[in-house]
Amino acid sequence: MKIFPTPFSRTKIKWLSAYLKIFHFSINEGEILGVSGESGGGKTTLAKIIAGIIMPVEGKIVWNQNADVSQSSISPVQILFQNNGEILNPFRKVNDIVTEALRIKNKDKNSIIQLKEKLFDAVGINPDLRNRKGYELSGGEQQRAALARLLAVNPKLLILDEPFSAQDVESQLNLVNLFKNINKNFKVTILCISHDLKILRKLVQRVLIIKDGEIIESGKTEEILKSPTSPYTKFLLRAENYSLALDELHSKK
User: What is the 8-class DSSP label of residue 215?
Assistant: First the structure.
């Protein structure tokens, strides 16, 4: 596996082969990269390995040409889980959670206040919500509060784990615009995991298709969605009502 920026020597990661097999890819600095596939294919396991939550049996994640991300005191990788409760303390105010995160890298009080305002404005947390506790927020509000807390530590790579699940179409499009603005204004590289190829098409420049712990297909999003080469990718597209002839769908390999 390779993490931005290029060039890199190729490294490998192996995680209990039943979950992730020999696996390598690169993410370019400033890019929004998508990862898609059915549930159980290894997408979240991949995210946890990159974020350092799970240690690989073999291999490592490399930044630049010689820096092992697992050795950093403050991880340059942050992950927004599908369950925001894994990040937010339900009994603490949103304002306090974000302030505490900002203090990790900022000591000046005025800087913290300015950065906090920038974060809250960027993710759409209005003044009324800032003094609420985690359990008092809706699911969407928790997601945005969790996002502000992650951005507060100035990550180089932000991983989004199924951020569009249980969202209506309008909310999904709002999130797409939010993530694009974060990518641009905070200069953070994004890895977005989603089973929804239709919404990934609106967000990511490149996409990896994963099945049974392996990359089945990868490339520019438009090219893969218009002319997939893997029968498995065609299966996923067919499942989302993309127009594909029946004879194009032979198997899910």
Answer: E
Instruction: Characterise 212 by phi-psi region: left (phi > 0), alpha (psi -120 to 50), beta (else).
Output: left
> What is the length of the chain?
253
Pairwise CA distance, residues 66 & 252, whole Å: 38
How much is the pTM? 0.83
Encode 153-187 in three state secondary structure: CCCCEEEEECCCCCCCHHHHHHHHHHHHHHHHHCC
Sheet containing strand 32-36, edge to edge, reads: 77-80, 157-161, 189-193, 32-36, 206-211, 214-220
Share of residues in the chain with pLDDT > 90 (%): 46
- State the Cα–Cα distance between residues 42 and 210, nearest whole angstrom: 7
Residue 168: the pLDDT is 87
Q: What is the mean pLDDT of residues 1-11?
A: 37
Query: Is residue 38 scored above 80 in pLDDT?
Result: yes
Give one DSSP letter per residue of 110-135, joined into a string.
Answer: HHHHHHHHHHHHHHT--HHHHTSBGG
Residue position matching structure tokens 């990718």? 233
